[in-house]
Amino acid sequence: MSPRTGEMLAAYFDLRSDRGPVHARIVGLMGRCLARGDPIPVCQTVTPSGLRYAISLDTPDRPMIDDPRSLPPAQRSPEWTRLCELIEDWDSLDLPDRLRVTRVLHKLGLWGVILRLAPPRPSSTSDDAAWRTLTRLRHMAALKARGEDDFPVPLDMYETYAQVARDPHAQLEERISAAVNLAAHHGRNDRTPDDIAPWAILAMRLLDDGSPSPLLASAAWRAICFLPYYRNDHLAVATMLDEAERLALIALRTADRLIAVENLRVLHQTRGRAARDPATAEDHYRRAVELDPDDPQTHVTLADHLLRQRRPDEAYEVFATAADLGAPYTGYSRSRMAQCRP
Questions:
Q1: Could you tell me which residues come within 8 angstroms of residue 135 by beta carbon, excluding any fewer than 6 positions away?
Q2: What Gene3D superfamilies is this protein classified in (predicted)?
Q3: Cis link prior to 328 (omega < 30° from 0)?
Q4: Which of 9, 66, 150, 273 yields a CA-CA distance of 20 to 30 A from 236?
Q5: Does residue 43 contact residue 262 with C-beta atoms inside 8 Å?
């Protein structure tokens, strides 16, 4: 059977479709916000470097593009047309609008056009936060363009983040984000508790002393659980993730629902990986599937777990669902199906 990639990921070619997995529906949300001139929502999942190539394998009728303007005008939705107009006007855009455009391009996986556009220059101190975010997105795009999906904080930005995290005059949410980014940087790279600790502890203090949004606080508690995890303090990991889940459920009522669902889905997958017993892990993986049933990634994570638990028949059915949903897990899911029934 042909995978449903074209249907599921239509938003990556029209910036407006509201179907498929949460990450694709967020693309449509971004397109609508861009067309209205609204702020672009900040999401947690980053588009894989090879997503567009994976889509092309499943849907050869779709064009391979690295610039929105490569799509013929007759095939452009109003949202896509607006993106093209803003790119054409790049040199006249202010820094916040450049950031809006770059966020959309980043989510679309169009790394090349991000790098070809003129780099940002701060025009005033009020633009510093936008400048830092835009610079980080360009660094990430450069890695993505090389096929790299791990993106440590660049050396030339590490001290900038450190200064922001420590600056009592900076906005609370940016301070928290900076500290969390540095804690996660060490958690994913050197995995040394002594390097994680200063930033995780600072983030915890800021979370306790301030009143950040439930969505940011939830994501922060999830990220900084690297510290107790690498100290083998699994009770502290569970306590932090309990707090992250409590806040995630509040965010479902107070934040944009798509962004809040994405956060909760990522959290359940983290809780599955952190679980001390297979049954608890499976419960969290199934809850992630329930939250995002059209994303093959949630099914693949569950199926891999079932296969590790020597339940190949159940895993086969879940892998088959993932293969039907399509990119970027079509080939992987089919190969794993063969392993379930050799």
A1: 119, 120, 157
A2: Tetratricopeptide repeat domain (1.25.40.10)
A3: yes
A4: 150
A5: yes
pLDDT tens digits, one per residue of 78-114? 999 999 999 999 999 999 999 999 999 999 999 999 9
* H runs (alpha helix) in the chain: 5-8, 11-14, 22-36, 51-58, 78-88, 95-108, 111-116, 128-145, 155-166, 172-188, 193-209, 214-224, 226-230, 234-254, 257-274, 278-291, 296-308, 312-325, 330-340
d(CA 96, CA 93): 8
First to last CA, the chain: 20
Q: Quote the CA–CA distance of 298 and 189 in Å, as a whole number.
A: 24
Q: Which of 160, 200, 171, 206 is nearest to 184 (CA)?
A: 200
**pTM metric for this prediction:** 0.94
b/e sequence 87-104, b meaning 16+ C-beta within 10 Å: beeeeebebebbbbbbbb
